[in-house]
Fold these 4 entries.
Entry 1:
Amino acid sequence: MILYSFRRCPYAMRARMALLVSGVSFEIREIVLRDKPAEMIAASPKATVPVLVLADGQVIDESIDIMRWALGRNDPEDWLAGDDAALIATFDDQFKHHLDRYKYADRHGADPIEHRLAGLAMLSELEARLAPDGNLRREARSLADIAIFPFVRQFASVDRPWFDAQAIPQVQRWLAQHIASPLFERAMIRLKPWAPGDAPVIWP
């Protein structure tokens, strides 16, 4: 199998983490967004990462589908028991909308403060979910946590002093916990961009 990925993309982050925890072996190809390889575009004409090309040629080019596929093959931490399709979809849609207009306000012609506050309101809802168990669905991490936290990480990084000053201590603790995890560290290893003819880089 081949995974086309980009280290800093939140969608690619969560796909890599699910593949790694599943133990499924795959070739990883780090791409450069301004110079996407023809092989990736041929596999998935929408040309966005991540793209997983299975051994039989089947292509999965939605990150949440890659996560669920990998965990369907092997789920040693029982992440699928902590799936929350509605919550994940809300963050993929609404939170990502506000995140983009907060982080890239000029690009979208948006008021960044308006979208920052809208994002914070959604994080306040997460705060209530996190208080009882430490993670979103249970004490241990699960699919919902790994699907959502890369976007919260990106939101926090726009203005870290502001984020750290907000009254969302459970969210801040949860985010720090996932950023510090050995799994995230493995998923964020720096790779040189792939080019045709390179020796395969096999994970895990």
Note: The longest strand covers residues 26-30.
Entry 2:
Amino acid sequence: MRPLDPRTTPARPDVAAAHLKGKVEALRFVAGDRRRVAVGHVGLRRAPNPDAPLETEALFGEEVTVYDELEGWSWLQLAGDGYVGYAPSAALSGELGPGPTHRVSALRTLLFPIASIKAPPVDALSMNARVSVVDEDGRFAVLDTGAYAIAAHLAPLDAFEADPVAVAERFIGAPYLWGGRTSLGLDCSALVQLSLAACGTKAPRDTDMQEAALGEAIPLDTARRGDLVFWKGHVALLRDARSIVHANAHAMAVAVEPLGAAIARIQAAGDEVSSVRRLD
């Protein structure tokens, strides 16, 4: 039996998810409480400490299951990609609440307390954050929270983009951030995950997970726009046969780079292309 991945397995020696009973050892097993992220975005950390390494980020409206709470921190699992980590309890809703109706389709949008762009914003949401629209007021969508969002920055949950590369290119210039998932900062696998999600394709969180789960392997010399190029610990989207767009620590940003230059630079650091994969 393949060992359970700790990144997506809600199990600690003292507590674990009820569905893992018989698969892991723990002092107690709990069903957990389903909630939603109630702030623009929140970091999931490796430990219940603001200085702990950032594992990933959860976006507004994303569903989570909380398995344990202690001293203002929740130990939880994201419903979308299954990632497990610690987040401040104050960033979560008290209960699951109504399901979302729309997602943020803009790179980033602001929430206002009233139907006026002159009002000081109360929060900012990044692409693929989920909201529940309950009414309209001119150019604004009224959310179930009472906040107002620009309606043109939202799309129904079943309305998708057609080209993940075009989505990724909208992030060009966004800073590189290990574990980040927003236009304020993101890493290579987050760029792929967010771009595919905007087009209706669900993807795992990390590069090795994506390489194992997405598409089928193809020869590099047949690669075309939309294919994914993988190295150990890194992934890029092909813009065409000669260039890629990727979030990378070399530029410390989302950037376009010639494919040949990227291959040579990463090869010089000791890593070869591990696969090229084409999505269905």
Note: The helical segments are 164-169, 188-198, 207-213, 259-268.
Entry 3:
Amino acid sequence: MNIRNINLTWHRASIGFIVTLICSFAGQALAQLPGFSLIGHLVLALLLGMCLQLLRPVTLAAQVSTPFIANKFLRAGIILLGFKLNLIILMSAGLKSLEAAVVVVAIMIPLNFFVARFFKVEHTLALLTACGCSICGAAAVMGVSGAVRAKADQSVLAVAIVAILGTVFTLIEVALQPFLGFTDSQFGVMAGLSLHEIAHAVAAGGAAGPVGTDSAIIAKLSRVLLLAPVAIIVGILEARRFRKMNGEKEGKMSVPIPYFMGGFILASAIGSYIPAINQFVPSFVQLAYLLLGMAMAALGLNVNFGVILKQGFRPMIGAILCSFFLLGLAISIVHTFF
């Protein structure tokens, strides 16, 4: 009997692995199509996972393993994504972009958070949305979700908001390009400083040609680099908040430090300074996105649609206002310093 139960558990776990893997591969394929590239592989994998909820038997069987996939595969994917961040290029060609990214993130996270709270958005959702819109989209949302003890529905809603606004503002920035008077390099920097996902920055920067694309990538990766310190700071602040909520005034404070962020930085350093690794970096990055896509699909399989429909309007309004402010801030920075 026990052996049968074990076999059944492994069977259901394998279903979750296979289903999320298919969603991740399908998301990658769809992201190659015109129009879908603006949405991005990760969000497409999330949407496919959500659609699979229509197949209840598959969803119920997959849910045995989806919490593990959403948690562990996410962290592994973020660590491997570090290989995409070349610190040598960033420090040589993008030091000014890094300084600008620090200014953008330092201003936009508090602004996004307090605007969301003004619209009576729940604390955790407000913080997730603030990090997603201010740093690097879905990866930032998932990177801080453990530190803020977020529920799956809150993470999915924050990712959805980031994806929608990133796509909309990509189109807005491309439309504004002829009127801004920027060089190709300046326009790319603006896109990298203002858009949420790497895919969005690349798509907008591409409107200014290869120079715009390269500048957008450097500026965007400068913001990605800030994910690790932000996740640690958020973890410390949230640990204090939870301790205060529980009435604990003394004793040891439990801080959920995202150790995988250390792996992210280590992977960046290895990929940047050990030449022998260079040939493997594209494979590592490809595997990173595959694992992240599986994690997003796992989230989609567990999302509560009722919660999203109930809570989605107010955080969206706050994020729209802040995205316009972010665009204006990026234009001002580029106009003044670049």
Note: The first helix runs from residue 2 to 30.
Entry 4:
Amino acid sequence: MKTLVTYSTLTGNTKKVAEAVFEAVSGEKEIMDIKNVNGAEGYDRIFVGYWVDKGEANEEAKKFMESLKDKKVGTFGTLGAYPDSEHAQKCVEKISDALRVNNNTVIAEFICQGAIDPRIIETMRKMGSNGPHAPTPEREARWAEAAKHPNEADFAAAKEIFGKLD
């Protein structure tokens, strides 16, 4: 079975999770940045890493996933929110539903926190109390917690999920 582990990353978080997934997968495999993928032909399964942007996969990963048809696909993502939050679960569902539209079979899903790009946090802080992502004590605490991820526990959880697929 030939596996492609691919990822899109802004801060390096998703790449780190991709490396953990790659390590857990046995058999013939390749890992590469989505920017370097020239199609999905020749792979029995594809594991796609994304970072959450506005409630769904970032544009680059989303475009790649839209190109997949009739494939066995696993997804893994990073986001600033808590992975057990309703927001995170809706993101995962939205991504899996979009993959199924092209007759793909979703064989694994994983999402974990990841550090938020400091430029995005600074933009939200500059918006003050006017924006939907205004800095509140709760939000500041979540941002601080996100900065600690992905961590070894996240990598172990991803390995457990994707390593079982062989």
Note: The chain has two domains: 2-114+150-163, 115-148.
